[in-house]
């Protein structure tokens, strides 16, 4: 897919911490990545790795007691005279007019559970019309027309009738389609999809992934796909960011991540996933131990207590930064200290 | 400790199992129709074997497993279970009072390790409860058995005084397994035992289940929606669609050479963790049929890319296309369908 080489969104050293009464949870601790128009970036990791908090930070919807404590989120402005002009979302007032215009307008979000994202007491159509009218100058009738059009675009049968139904009247797959229609109704430049298919069955998941890919090509959107499912990442993404306990441990082109993973965590994770192509009843290689509780974050590299390649006296003392390990690929690991 | 030898023959035989749920409406709760959650399901399960029941939500896999445990009473059909004493009992018809001795022999592992353990009880109480209920009165004896069980599932016996909140998801699932094994069951029904766990922990639990099976001669009925997980643990797989088994085959055969179009679509829909395999996926049109109002003929025909006129009118029967390979499709013998390579 062609890009003009400039990212539409640039996240730099993002730090989002939570300050509950018991201490500090570093949910996101220095995440950096870029999002390009027309391309899909995958953010993968297991629970507690900070992938969802990263998405919430971009939209500035992190709940208390969490807040962004460092870093920058540069969004490139649309049109204008200076194409290089950016705005730092991290500095905006989370309740201010500017970010409210960006949410839903420039950047839209699709959640995992469409049942909880729709209001149960308003029809799908009313919610879409409201959103369209907040972000555009369309009148009620025109907004409704656009809503019907969007529902048709995402493949909902009889959209002119479905629009007056409520979320609970739709099946899981249709509800997720309606959620996507709602997100895309103002033609956002970036779509953040947080586990968009996790609650769905595989055949429905295949339908939704196909739909997302199709719409992305049509609208030339940038997509940030947040998931724990490495199969979904392999099928959908161009670039991948792997997170563990709030840190980006590896990032790179999708083929390199799956065929030449460098960070021990990425490697172990890929080995341990059950594969439909494995031979029958084979044992899976496992990662020792379990993900530490966020209050008991290990010192040094967060993965070192579970790492098969741990260097004693190094990995448990200081945190490795990203090092280049291939074209467009970096890994945050001391193994690559002297790599070219 | 292995369960007593119940003699030859399958451990469990399910014959023509049906479970209908009434749809009621109005002040008088008039029955308007039935949801056919399980609709004429038959299969058998040999000792020390793992049979997987797979399918998408609403296909009846969980309802089937609940009927076998008699957590639900079946509408029709027979569930023949061979007890440790060698007798064959029909679980479907047993009066409630006679179920308890049977339940020692059939145990369950649950999906959600966070809601299936009582947060106010210690591991000793949780894992020891089935022992107490079944007559092990001495606390010291129970503590010894609990320690043994915890070791068996890879937890330290010292943990028995702790509460569930001190453990991670994977550890909690181990606790659930220890509880299920406390009474030396012969049949273990595992309903989505790893789907709530992180990938890196999933593998540990799957391996543990396979090890325990070899060690204790357990028989598993493994209910799951994730075909890749199923491939790692089962000997045979039954695919369900709208309350019926559409295909049942040895695991390798089912994955390599499926004979039912729904199985083919299901296999192809699983995202493969390799970007070089962005294959032509079969994307099924439409949605899963409503079990309260299923379509005519073959339930799958409205979504089936291979449907012919007979599929609309006549319901196919589950028939053998090869030894041990049952398919319910009019065109099972003529279609050549795509599986997944090894």
UniProtKB/TrEMBL annotation, chain A:
SUPFAM superfamilies: P-loop containing nucleoside triphosphate hydrolases
Pfam annotation, one family: oligo_HPY
ABC transporter domain: residues covered: 9-270
Coiled-coil stretches noted in the UniProt entry, renumbered to this chain: none
Keywords on record: ATP-binding, Cell inner membrane, Cell membrane, Membrane, Nucleotide-binding, Translocase, Transport
Top-rank lineage group of the source organism: Bacteria
GO biological process: peptide transport
SMART domains xrefs: AAA
Annotated compartments: Cell membrane
Gene Ontology molecular-function annotations: ATP binding; ATP hydrolysis activity
Membrane topology value: Peripheral membrane protein
UniProt GO cellular component terms: plasma membrane
NCBIfam families: oligo_HPY (TIGR01727)
Family affiliation: Belongs to the ABC transporter superfamily.
Protein's name according to its UniProt entry: ABC transporter ATP-binding protein
Record organism: Candidatus Segetimicrobium genomatis
UniProtKB/TrEMBL annotation, chain B:
GO MF: ATP binding; ATP hydrolysis activity
Keywords: ATP-binding, Nucleotide-binding, Transport
Keyword Transport: yes
InterPro entries: AAA+_ATPase, ABC_transp_ATP-bind, ABC_transporter-like_ATP-bd, ABC_transporter-like_CS, Oligopep_ABC_C, P-loop_NTPase
Alphabetical list of Gene3D superfamilies matching this protein: P-loop containing nucleotide triphosphate hydrolases (3.40.50.300)
Domain spans labelled ABC transporter: 12-267
Signal peptide location: none
Gene Ontology biological process: peptide transport; transmembrane transport
Entry similarity comment: Belongs to the ABC transporter superfamily.
NCBIfam families: oligo_HPY, PRK11308.1
The protein's name: Dipeptide ABC transporter ATP-binding protein
Classification of source organism: Bacteria, Bacillati, Candidatus Sysuimicrobiota, Candidatus Sysuimicrobiia, Candidatus Sysuimicrobiales
